[in-house]
Amino acid sequence: MTDQSRYSWTARRRSSARVTYGLLFVGIFATATTAFAQQRPLATEDPETVPAGRVLVEGGFDYSRSMEYPASGLEGNLLRVPLLGVSVGISSIAELQLDGGLHNRLAITSRDPGAPLAGMVTARGDTTWSIEDLVVGTKIRILSEQPGRPSFALRFATKLPNASNESGLGLDTMDFYLTGLLAKTVKSVRVVFNGGLGTLSDPIHGESQNDVLTLGGSFARALTNAFEVVGEVHGRIDTSNGDAPPGTESRGLFRLGARYTVGSFRGDAAVFFGLTSRDPSVGVAAGFTYVFNAFTLP
């Protein structure tokens, strides 16, 4: 498999924040004129970076059944659309990432009035919505893949508090992640492993945090030059011995999907299943990835 074929692709918030967030993504799309990172529909990060001077744009949606929000006490069926991401190759070994979404809509099926932040939720009907938390990250490849070794990279990421706790969908907290990324291609199969640490802020007590382990493993099996079958297990493990602040508990998903590539465009679709009682019972996702040449580095 070539390097080119390996690349793949958060009720109420203050109105000014929604406008700024929307304009950010609209502006990036508007400047687009055409290389694949590796992502959609997977969450496991590949250590390969977007080539220098190229921009990867991805978009899509997902729909989850029986999604739980322990902090606000809401449960329901969640639609996230559009989900947007931009990755910019800022050198031959590094990329800058922006990932988020403009509209998360929860069809509420139950409420827990005893939840810690239930009194802050302003949604009184059977639906609520918010924007998605924006994640800003940087990925740096340390080792390129060789016949006798895997590629290795580090990823640093910060989750910003864009989704409001008044909607019941956000925590109004910032989180930080440091993740090591490993990958190796054997014949037509690419295998990726992620492992790292996450520092998640406590939404109830501002002076506290919860440290979690982040883990992920994925495969991509090329059936033709254009078509791949992909799958992964991805999530986090709470290290607080069962006393995690609400919203920072262990989470995990099993995902199985496919990707089809035509030139610089890739379409994808997947189904996913929750691995803990707080994860969605089942969900579906679909989207696209597009890569273009944006600038030339000096």
Overview features:
globular; 298 residues; Porin; 12-stranded antiparallel β-barrel; mainly beta
Class per helix and strand makeup: mainly beta
SS element count, helices: 2
CATH topology: Porin
Number of strands: 14
What is the domain total for the residues? 1
Portion in helices: under 10%
What is the residue-averaged pLDDT? 89
The largest sheet is: 12 strands, antiparallel, barrel
CATH domain class: Mainly Beta
- The residue ranges in which pLDDT falls below 50 over 5 or more consecutive positions are 1-35
How much of the polypeptide forms β-strand, as a percent range? over 45%
Rg from alpha-carbon coordinates: 19 Å
Quick one: CATH superfamily? monomeric porin ompg
Adjacency order of strands in the biggest sheet: 1-2-3-6-7-8-9-10-11-12-13-14
State the CATH architecture: Beta Barrel
Order of helices and strands: HHEEEEEEEEEEEEEE
The coarse overall form would be globular
Distance between the termini: 29 Å
Walk me through what this model shows.
With about 300 residues, this protein is mainly beta. It has one domain (about 5-295): monomeric porin ompg (Porin). The chain has two helices and 14 strands. The chain has helices at about 5, 15-30; strands at about 55-70, 75-90, 95-100, 105-110, 125-130, 135-145, 150-160, 175-185, 190-200, 210-220, 225-240, 250-260, 265-275, 280-295. Strands 1-2-3-6-7-8-9-10-11-12-13-14 form a twelve-stranded antiparallel barrel. The longest helix has 16 residues, at about 15-30. The two termini are about 30 Å apart. Residues about 1-35 have low confidence and may be disordered.
